[in-house]
Specification:
Keywords: Glycosidase, Hydrolase
GO molecular function, one term: hydrolase activity, acting on glycosyl bonds
Number of strands: 0
Helix content: 55-70%
Radius of gyration: 18 Å
Number of domains: 1
Number of helices: 5
EC number: 3.2.1.-
Enzyme class: hydrolase
Distance between the termini: 37 Å
InterPro entries: Flagellar_prot_FlgJ_N (IPR019301)
Strand content: under 5%
Structural class: mainly alpha
């Protein structure tokens, strides 16, 4: 099933898909801001799903038997959204970096400097 064809993703007013689909009609600064917010939202969803799977691996769970799915799901969404604000995985930063490579005239911080930011490094 294609979620875009059914309209389930694009029909929500707060859906990040709307930002991505409308990105072509905006200027470069607005595109960079949209990509940054979509990246943060994606990171939030990714972290929420990761937390959900981690919680599902527990035998008893945190919230008891009744309502554990509801409360656990809300907990996962909340924690995922809060964690994504600090960008622990760097997904939003990587998306923005790739966008800036493809559109070098993009100025995300509002200044006139054209200095390239250092590449994101990861340590294992």
């Amino acid at each position: 099933m294609n979620p875009l064809a059914s309209g389930s993703l694009a029909s929500s007013p707060s859906s990040p898909m709307l930002d991505v689909m409308g990105a072509g009609s905006l200027d470069n600064k607005t595109n960079a801001k949209n990509i940054e917010s979509v990246g943060t939202e994606f990171e939030s969803v990714f972290l929420s799903m990761m937390l959900k799977e981690m919680r599902n691996s527990l035998e008893g769970g945190f919230f008891g038997e009744e309502g554990s799915d509801t409360y656990g799901g809300m907990f996962d969404l909340f924690i995922g959204k809060e964690l994504a604000q600090s960008r622990p995985l760097g997904i939003a930063d990587m998306l923005l970096e790739q966008y800036e490579k493809l559109n070098p005239s993009t100025d995300t911080d509002g200044s006139d400097s054209k200095e390239a930011s250092p590449p994101t490094s990861f340590t294992a």
